[in-house]
Structure formats: C-alpha cells, structure tokens
Amino acid sequence: MELEKSMVVSEFLSKGSVLKQGAEARVYRDVFLGRSTIIKERFPKKYRHPLLDEKLTHRRTVQEVRSIQRCRRAGIPTPVVYFVDYTSHCIFLEDIVDSVTVRDHILATRQRPHPSPTLEPLEPLAARVGRVLARMHDEDVVHGDLTTSNMLLRRSGEGEAELSLVLIDFGLSYISALPEDKGVDLYVLEKAFLSTHPNTEPLFQKLLESYAASSKKSSAVIKKLDEVRLRGRKRSMVG
Amino acid sequence: MTVVIGFEGSANKIGIGIIRDGEVLSNPRRTYITPPGQGFLPSDTARHHRAVVLTVLQEALQQAGLTPADIDCVAYTKGPGMGAPLLTLALVARTVAQLWGRPLVGVNHCIGHVEMGRLITQAHNPTVLYVSGGNTQVIAYSERRYRIFGETIDIAVGNCLDRFARVIKISNDPSPGYNIEQMAKRGSRYVELPYTVKGMDVSFSGILSFIEEAANKMLASAECSAEDLCFSLQETLFSMLVEITERAMAHCGSQEVLIVGGVGCNLRLQEMMGVMCKERGAKLFATDERFCIDNGAMIAQAGWEMFRSGQVTELQDSWITQRYRTDEVEVTWRD
Asked: Which residues have CB under 8 Å from B221's CB, separation 6+?
C-alpha cells in the first residue's frame, strides 16, 4: 500500500514542472484538487549514509509540517498544507500566487530612483517582519532558516499598503521555548539579511525594535542574540 | 620574479616554505605530537617550535637552493591561532626581515589556506570549505573580501575529532584525525548521533558532549566497536559540512568547491563532497596533506599575493593576534 501510494506521487510529479532545485528539495508547481499547488519533494541525498539520510529527511518533513500547522493555528501567515506523503517525503502546499520574495522586493525598491536615497520606504516592511517573527517566536516556533528569500509578499489589493507577508520554507524549523534558539534564529536572519542586502544595518535595527516591541519574551532573546554575535569574535581559532 | 618565504606556527605544526612566482621551492614542516589522550598546550607547543625553527629555516633555504639574498619578502602568520607559538614564529620572521633588509608581510592564516588551495588546484572562484582543528568556515569571495557564509557557532570540526580521539585514546601520530579516518574504514555499524545545522551554520559541541558521554558506555557494553563510532562520527560530521557547503553554493550560484585545511585531507570527506558536486554538476577541488595541513608555503603564497599588490607590514604593526576574522582582510590582489 505504501509503495503504491508513493508510486502514484512519483507519477504525479513527473507530470508537473520543476520550479527549482534547491540544496534541500526539488520544488514543483502543479494543479492539485483544483488549486495551484507547490510540491516540495525531499529527495535522497546520496552522499549521506542511508540510515542518516532517511532519519534526517523524515524528521525535516515532519518538522516542517508541524511548524506550519502550529503557525497557522496561531494566525501567523504561512501556506496551507494540502497533503503530505511520508514515503516519498513530499509536501503539497498552497501556491502563493502573485507574490514576490522580500529579497526581490528590497532589491527592486533600492534600485528605483528615489527623491532621497534612504532606506525609509522599506521601514514599514522591516517593522512588519519584526512583528510576524515576534508572533512566531511567541508560539515557540524557531524557523531555523530565516532569509529574505523565505518571506513572501502577496498582493491582496492595490498599492503597497495591501501587501501581506507570508513565511515559507520551514524545513529546518523546530519547537523550542529557549531564548538561545530564538536568538540564533534572529542571528541567522541578520547574517543572511546583511550579506544579501549590504549596508542596511539601520533597516535590520528597525526590524529588531519592532520585534522587541511586539514579543512578550523579547528581552531574553535579544540578550542571547548579542551573545551569539560575539561568539564568532571570541572563539579560539587554533589550527 | 618575486621570491617570498613564509613562516607558519599557529598550532602544533611549524612550517617554513619558499615560493617563487607560483612555484613551491621548499616546504619543510615539523609536528609537535602529544601522547594519546592529551592535547597540545600553548607553552609546550611554543617550546617545541623554538627548538626546531632555525633548523627548519635552514632546510627551507637549502632545499630551495637559495641564500637570504635571494628572498624578496618575509611573510609570517599574523593570526589567528595560539598566542605563544604564533609569537615564536613572528619573532624569527621579524629578526630575519631586519637582518636581510627585506619587507615583512603579516598574513591571515585562513587566507593562507585559501590562496594555497587556489594556486595548487587553479580553481577559478570556488565556494571554499575551510576545515581544520581550529576553524570551520564556508567562504566565498565577493567584492574584495573573503566573506564567511557559514561557520561553526561553537567548536571547529577538527577540534571535535581531536577531542573524541582523546576520549578513546587514539594515537596522535601522525594526527588524531588521520587515525580516526583509518579506523572509520574498518567500521560498518551506523550509530545515530546528534546532527545540528542552523541555517548556514553548524554546531559541533552537542555531538561532542554526546559522544564523550556515550562512547565509553557503548564500548563497554559492546553495543558497537570503536571503529563503528569513528565511522558514525565521520558520516555525521561530514554530512553536516557537505550540507552547509551545498547551501552556500545554492545561495551564491557557484559551481566549484574547494576544500582546504587539515580536515580536508580526509578522503571520505572528499568522497562525500564529490558525490554532492556530481549531483549538482559542480566541480570539486582538493589538495593533499602537503598543502591541506598547516605549512609555510601557504603563508608565502598569500604573502606573495599581498606583497605584489602593494601590501607591506611595518615593524611596529607586526604583532600577532589570536583572533583574526577572514573577512577582516582587504583582498587587494583580486577584483
């Protein structure tokens, strides 16, 4: 029965179009149950020992689904999970149509000629991201791979004020109440943010301020973030 | 024609090498090896280096068939690394630079590894995995800096391996990592160990504490052999390294991987990275133990690049530092 099920999924996938192949999974777009669907297939990694590969792939599939469900229950915007096949490690997700990644939005905004070359136009977005992350952390969901490519802006009406934020790619996520884990989560975002968007420190600062203001448990998290930032500097680098 | 001599001694290896326009003329090295179950301490290591440095210097010149007059520049490891050993080598470098009347260049140890890897393999613009006893970084060049895309948030992978070797009292000769590799070849049972990747970063202190605690229990109950533990540890650690390298490659759109640093000698790591590269249509570059493991020629090579692009270290700036981030250096020799 399991084998038949996964054969059906593989057949289904072979008809879909591969959107992209990331380090972690292959992403397809197709129609499922009458809706535009993104299918995330975690394929086996041949460089890993088969037992490790199976454990890791299964765990990440389960964690991704669990984290998305937990976020949704708390009203945090993520794609809807339509279906999961645990044999082939495929997750069928709502396709967020007519959306752009926060990364592309920031890049496009910074390229546009502005009356003043400041980061001001992007501040509301940074504040919004801070608020959403605060809600997520208050639910004890640690994303694990926060980057501006893992946040989508969906057009729900005319003009920029109508863009709504959606978090995606919960493959490395897990449930944790520890400020340390949440601090590291923000640290990962900070590194990704500043390397992708150089010279935007004030914008990220705005994000953190908004986070601190919105989260009930933020002071411990921010303190841990400061500690983790220093770690890179203070580590003994012998060898 | 530019001839540069490089002095390296940031950990337990002391090496002095000479490079002439991309040609390695000599690269002698000595390793301070401690008894099984023991790591190396800074003062003992410095003592070891002091005892052999002048002999190694003579070897470097003799093997290259050169005299001090032939040297154009003296490069030395400014950091990062252990204080006392770094100081020993810096002192000698400063002295000969003044004796011979030649300029000094202070080199970042990590960049030494990268530049040697680039020279030997001729990799064009690779994603670099730098793995050693003291460092674990995924580096990519961008806009005049070697930027760190991913790294360990606690200990280096080589440090994890070395400390595990101490727990099961494996010999440190020629290096604990090498002996773990040989034992792993004879292991077959995969034991589940903690696996920790956080975004583009990795964490090894969890798996180390787990295995330090569990190893003796598992060996005593004959649940698995020491060889099985070595095997499982390598499979897990190296999978983590391959994963963060792949993520960096996907992020940067890179099609080349270069492995440098002592742990880069490990053939199983090279094999696993090779499989990942093949699946992505990327190319893998690696060097052998002459250049993976800390050596003087890599410092000479980085020094050669720096010197030719106009960088020189004044005597008053020729200090050493235990902490020196790879992205602190302005890479003036690339565009």
From this structure: none
